[in-house]
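We give the entry.
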Amino acid sequence: MSEIKHCSPRCNLFRCVKDSATFKGEGVWCGWTDEECNVANCNYASCVKRRLLPKGICGESLKRKTNEKKIEETVGPPVKLRGKTLRRIGEKEIF
């Protein structure tokens, strides 16, 4: 699963929104444009599992990356309070 795979019209999960993809010989032809189906450039190509990425890349073949951030980076500077909010909460700074 480390290699990027491109979606093909022969995939079981591929769907043409216009329902104009037809199988002719060894290729899949688009009845809308009368050309061979090109998933990377087609606006009507979709995936049943919603995994089709831009440029026709199959999302099932990619591994997700996670970013771990430190708490200090996500929280940011403390917010200083005044007035009615300060009286209700009782703290001068909120993190």
